[in-house]
Design a protein that fits this description.
Layout: H1 3-11, H2 22-41, H3 52-60, H4 72-88, H5 97-110, H6 113-131, H7 136-223, H8 230-259, H9 276-281, E1 286-292, H10 298-318, E2 325-333, E3 336-343, H11 357-367, E4 371-376, E5 383-390
Parallel strand pairs: 1-2
Antiparallel strand pairs: 2-3, 3-5, 4-5
Helix pairs in contact: 3-4, 4-5, 5-7, 6-7, 7-8, 7-10, 10-11
């Protein structure tokens, strides 16, 4: 062997008993018990020393132990038959004790308490039948061996229960881990949906306002080029710039959470009812706003804000009137917050390409346990949105 081979051989970790497969472990156990039984057979215990037949029986009864884990009841039946024959021939009675205790332990650790008790009673009864012919001495020995039998069966039952409890604890831990992972995935999905809703509301509202303000500027430029109203054009352009700045700031705070998932929440307070005045001012239409509500929970206030924002966006986009008027009412009644938005436009929800505005409003309301109804007004003039948002927490939101 060259030095390199010697180094490689020395660096290999040794194989331990635990690393062997169960069959080899049981084979080594059977060999060790057979060696122990051979020593006992010629040194201590009652009965005569084994002859050729006795050695064959003594060594042969250890062979089934190799399969004790695969078929414990079959191994027990074979070993009891051989052991009974061995004792009937009056060979050393102490030699097979260790092997018989091992197989009884195996039966107890692999079977339930009822079957274990039945097997224990059967083994004790068979032993008493074999020992009864020896008189009181045999009965006394039988009681001593019965104590060992009961001890092995109780030990095996205890180990079985311990393993079942350990397996149940591991299973519970794995189930809890799966539950935590599912909860984390659910929270991530909810956060993505929230961001998608915010982006839709923000971008749809901003782009619509910019379109309206641009149309105003273009109208001023085309109405009378020789008498250009520079003040009106400048105001329209300033409104566009202000809308862009506002949208840029809100977009930055909305997307901040996507930059670093581990960073603290820097989104700031949720938009609420106090922002409705500014929202109405930037709507690009004449908005009559009435707010009569105090102490609204942040989540409910944010939902109301987004519903009004989407309703204003839809009114401006689909209203179809230059002098569009939108009425917004937000007021508290009977433990709930009612949001009512109407316009006098001539368009409808079906005008233009289909979008997610009404779906988004309903999802906003549903997130706080509320409802939204939207459709053309009863008199056929314009569109209306009515949302009812409860001011109490939903039962599912309580922790």
């Amino acid at each position: 062997m060259n030095p390199v081979q010697a180094t490689i051989t020395a660096s290999r970790p040794g194989r331990t008993l635990a690393s062997l497969d169960p069959r080899r472990q049981d084979a080594l156990l059977a060999a060790g018990l057979a060696t122990l039984a051979s020593g006992i057979a010629v040194t201590v215990g009652s009965g005569r020393h084994p002859d050729a037949l006795g050695w064959a029986l003594l060594l042969g009864l250890h062979v089934p132990l190799v399969w004790r884990r695969r078929a414990p009841l079959t191994v027990l039946a074979v070993m009891i038959t051989v052991i009974a024959t061995y004792h009937q021939l009056d060979y050393n009675h102490s030699a097979p004790t260790a092997a018989s205790m091992v197989v009884l332990y195996t039966v107890a650790v692999t079977h339930g308490p009822r079957r274990t008790a039945f097997i224990g009673v059967s083994v004790v009864t068979l032993m008493l039948l074999l020992k009864i012919r020896h008189g009181m001495a045999g009965v006394q020995v039988s009681f001593q061996i019965t104590g060992w039998i009961v001890s092995m069966l109780v030990l095996g039952g205890y180990i079985r229960v311990h393993r079942e409890n350990a397996a149940a604890a591991v299973e519970r831990a794995e189930r809890a881990e799966r539950t935590r992972e599912e909860e984390a995935r659910r929270r991530v999905a909810e956060e993505r949906l929230r961001i998608a809703r915010d982006l839709h509301d923000l971008l749809a509202h901003t782009i619509t306002l910019i379109g309206v303000q641009t149309s105003v500027a273009a109208h001023v430029l085309e109405a009378d080029p020789e008498r250009l109203d520079r003040t009106a054009v400048a105001k329209a352009l300033d409104d566009i710039a202000g809308t862009c700045r506002t949208a840029r700031g809100e977009l930055r705070t909305t997307l901040e959470v996507l930059r670093d998932p581990g960073a603290p929440d820097v989104r700031g307070p949720l938009p609420g009812l106090d922002g409705l005045a500014e929202l109405a001012k930037s709507a690009g239409a004449r908005v009559d706003l009435a707010v009569r509500a105090d102490g609204v929970p942040p989540a409910v206030g944010a939902a109301a804000y987004r519903i009004v924002q989407e309703a204003l966006t839809n009114a401006v986009r689909h209203g179809g009137r230059a002098d569009l008027t939108v009425c917004v009412g937000v007021y508290e009644e009977e433990g709930g917050l009612r949001v009512h938005v109407t316009d006098d436009g001539v368009g409808g929800a079906g005008d233009g390409p289909p979008g997610y505005g009404l779906v988004g409003m309903r999802e906003r309301a549903r997130s706080v346990g509320g409802t939204v109804d939207a459709g053309p007004r009863a008199d056929g003039r314009g569109f209306e949105v009515c949302a009812v948002l409860p001011l109490r927490e939903k039962p599912g939101d309580q922790r």
